[in-house]
Write a structure and sequence with these properties.
This protein is of the alpha/beta class. It contains twelve helices and 15 strands. The chain has two domains: 242 residues, Dihydropteroate synthase-like (TIM Barrel, Alpha-Beta Barrel), CATH 3.20.20.20; 90 residues, Sulfite Reductase Hemoprotein, domain 1 (2-Layer Sandwich). The longest helix has 18 residues.
Amino acid sequence: MIITRRKSKQISIGEVKVGGNAPISVQSMCNTDTRDVKSTLKQIEELASAGCEIARLAVLNKDASEAIKEIVKKSPIPLVADIHFDYRLALQCIENGIHALRINPGNIGNKEHTIKVVNASKERNIPIRIGINAGSLEKEFASLDIPLADKMIKSALRHIEILEDLNFYDIKVSLKSSDVMTTIEAYKKIADIIEYPLHLGVTEAGTLKSGLIKSSVGLGTLLSQGIGDTIRVSLTENPAEEVEAGFGILKALGLRKKGINFISCPTCGRTQIDLISLAKKVEEKFKNLDLPITIAVMGCPVNGPGEAKHADFGIAGAIGEGYIFKKGEIVARVPENNLINSLENIIMESYKLVK
């Protein structure tokens, strides 16, 4: 099934297009102290190596906004400054070359402050993400006797109106909650109201396992309905894991083709090899191989190649050995301790690549 995506306005964050017919981009956020230029750049480079296309930085004070200047110069990917309340930090980040802002215009003081930020953003073609978080709604919306998703939407629309009244339309919107169903409801409703691109995320999703489950359900549901232009999988984990998870969700839905598609059987009583360990090793070995192929690891030498005949390459385990297969056809019989290297050699030879 081909997913028909919602029509949205396109914006640019540095060289990355968001919305319209642009690929759904994968983001993450650094957890370093932005004032520490060296460690922040190191993490940005790690994120970029993992495939991250946009990174967000927390800007808590003037020292952090000043550090942006050097970080932007050396960053391999576009950067977003995450700012709360202080319009002066936004102005400093704009002056220092930031590619986009995450700031809610209704929360940065009087109208003159907002006008200054908007005018500076216009001059530099810097988009603004309106980021609504269910846990930090303004009192006027939090006190309303309506569903939480509707409170979030009202808050978003107010911030959008402030920017539109200043003739600013380079906008991206997010409505995040730690509750999956609230997140889904908020995005589905606002998708029918506005045409701005939507940044998807389930906030405070949790650690690797629980966070992946919540994010996969929330983001997967929305993306399968064509909603979403850029995503962040929020995990209490190394940010590079967020990137891998983001691409995994997009690949599962056929929305991005980056990297291999990895499959493995769940094991059963017929399994005669340490399949769990083998599958983990194969997935780790080929995680950075950017080829549009499917690699399978199966536990049964009798049924495995046939059950995974749609895979481009695969391993079927046996006692102390295994079979390498291509499109369901066995091409080699190999000792267990040489299975992964043999699989790699066959893939490299097939695509005329050098190890």
